[in-house]
Amino acid sequence: MAEKKKEAKKANGNGKFILGAALGAIGGAIAGVLFAPKSGKETRKDIAEGTKKVAKKAKVTGKKAVAAGKKVVEKDVKAAAKKPATKKAPAKKAAKK
Q1: Quick one: which of 33, 37, 70, 94 has the most CB atoms within 10 Å?
Q2: What is the pTM of this model?
Q3: pLDDT digits (tens, 9 = 90+) for 43-71
Q4: Which residues are CB-neighbours of 29 under 8 A, at least 6 positions away?
């Protein structure tokens, strides 16, 4: 039981790190574009192109995540189907006074 909690905390920590790294990269990219010595028109064009690239990558990553999630669910469903059904204990009769 404690092992599962450790794994969950570790996975949660990894997710926070990845989120922080992604946000830092995005912030750095925005700052780089905004402080670059370009005209406003060029900067807006760069921002639009960057946004399209990020959106495309996010779409691909989302599709991969959904596919991975489906695989996990299918695996769990197959594993559950292989296990025999557990028998319920018979209901206890109420004690008569």
Answers
A1: 33
A2: 0.44
A3: 888 888 988 998 998 899 888 888 888 88
A4: 50
